[in-house]
Amino acid sequence: MSDDEHRLQVEDGDDHAGVPDGFQRLWTPHRMAYIGGENKPSDSGAGDGCPFCRAPGLSDDEGLIVARGGAAYVVLNLYPYNSGHLLVCPYRHVADYTDLTPEEVAEVAELTRTSMRVLREVYGPDGFNLGMNQGHVAGAGIAAHLHQHVVPRWGGDSNFLPIVARTRALPEILSDTRARLAAAWPSDQRG
Ligand SMILES: [Zn+2]
Predict the structure, then answer these.
(1) Can you tell me whether residue 14 is helix, strand or coil?
(2) Ligand 1 centroid from CA 157, angstroms
(3) How much distance in Å is there from the Cα of 57 to the middle of ligand 1?
(4) Cβ atoms within 10 Å, residue 164
């Protein structure tokens, strides 16, 4: 294959017409949404310019918050890869996993486990992708404020969801998702 042909194929892939690549399919939609500018932080600082600092100050409905802990909280991804795509964030504006306090590490882990249990109960996924993108180069849309992805997966979902995810997620649907997950969240873990 010549360089030109190779380049062409890569470009086709960006338009979701090429040979699928699992890793890119998983993380590109968020990156594209943020590159598009919507909800993009004005800078890397804390405060209202950062969506993950801003969300806890809103009501659960407005902020799409599913659960609030003492050091971390669970929020619906505004640009979900799948229905029920959650983000577990420390309240503190911290970029790097090594900078979390032991309390934050423990709570991010516990909220991640509860997210899985609640998602299983409500949506019955076949599996999950869990993970943190550390740094822009690794695909973090908002690199300055650490967030752990909890992405429910179903057999065959990667065949069509990148296209679905690129279309605007309707606020009503996200708000329904939030309400269902919040209702299923164990009461002893509600903030
Ligand atoms: Zn922040």
Answers:
(1) helix
(2) 31
(3) 12
(4) 14
Concatenated DSSP letters of 134-181: -SGGGT-SSTTS--EEEEEE-TTGGGTHHHHHHSPPPHHHHHHHHHHH
> Given this model, what pLDDT does residue 175 score?
86
**CB-based contacts of 122: which residues, under 8 Å, 6+ apart?**
84, 180, 181, 184
pLDDT at 142: 85
10-residue block means of pLDDT along the chain (191 residues)?
A: 39 44 41 44 75 93 95 90 90 96 98 98 93 87 91 74 48 81 87 53
55-70 pLDDT, tens digit per residue, is 999 999 999 999 999 9
Token readout for 49 is 């310019």
Cα 137 to averaged position of ligand 1 atoms, centre (Å): 18
- Please answer whether residues 150 and 85 qualify as being in contact, where contact means their C-beta atoms are separated by less than 8 angstroms: yes
pTM of the prediction? Answer: 0.73
Residues 6+ away with beta carbon under 8 Å from 165: 29, 79, 80, 81, 82
Cα of 40 vs centre of ligand 1, distance in Å, is 12
* Residue 74 CB coordination number (10 Å): 28
Catalytic positions, written as ranges: 147
3-class SS at 38?
Answer: coil
Distance 84 CA to ligand 1 centre (A): 22
CATH number assigned to the domain covering 3-189: 3.30.428.10
